[in-house]
Amino acid sequence: MRMGHGWQWRGCSRRAVRFLEPALLLLLHHSPAHGYTLLEQVEALGLEGFDPAVIYRALREMESQGWIVSRWDREQTQGPPRRVYQLTPLGDEVLRYWIQDLQETRKLLDRFLQRYYEHIEQHHAQEDP
């Protein structure tokens, strides 16, 4: 199955795919990181099942949009140089937008669920005389 941005996903929910970019922005908001570290941290957030190539593709796309920058780390690695990703001011702005959108979505979901549960309670009350 294919999702937006041409990413293939297997084992990932649509919700996980939708949250990949904001999750990466959030992690980079805390500190610059290598791609492998980001992969581990994304999984720790509960977004599991991503092929590492999907993570790196997302990072390249975010870099092309100016949300992050990268540089080669030749000093802090025991093997070949590794790329370190860092959030830009534009990326920080995009993260703030995501946070605002998530807060609005949470309010919408809370209202939706409240309405559902109220209906269920009314339905059960009508069944039980």
Q: Helix segment count?
A: 4
Query: Any low-confidence stretches, pLDDT <50, length ≥5?
Result: 1-11
H and E string:
HEHHEEH
Sheet/helix structural class: mainly alpha
Q: Which value, in Å, is the CA radius of gyration?
A: 20 Å
> What coarse outline follows from CA principal-axis ratios?
elongated
Number of β-strand runs = 3
* CATH class annotation: Mainly Alpha
What share of the residues lie within helices? 55-70%
- Oligomerization state: single chain
Overall structural domain count: 1
Strand content: 5-15%
End-to-end distance, in Å?
48 Å
Cross-sheet strand order for the largest sheet: 1-3-2
Short structural description:
With 129 residues, the chain is mainly alpha-helical. 61% of the residues lie in helices and 11% in strands. A three-stranded antiparallel β-sheet has the order 1-3-2.
Describe the structure.
The protein is mainly alpha-helical. It has a single domain, classed as Orthogonal Bundle (Arc Repressor Mutant, subunit A), CATH 1.10.10. The protein contains four helices and three strands. A three-stranded antiparallel sheet has the order 1-3-2. The radius of gyration is 20 Å and the shape is elongated. The protein starts with 13 loop residues before the first helix and ends with a helix. Residues 1-11 have low confidence and may be disordered.
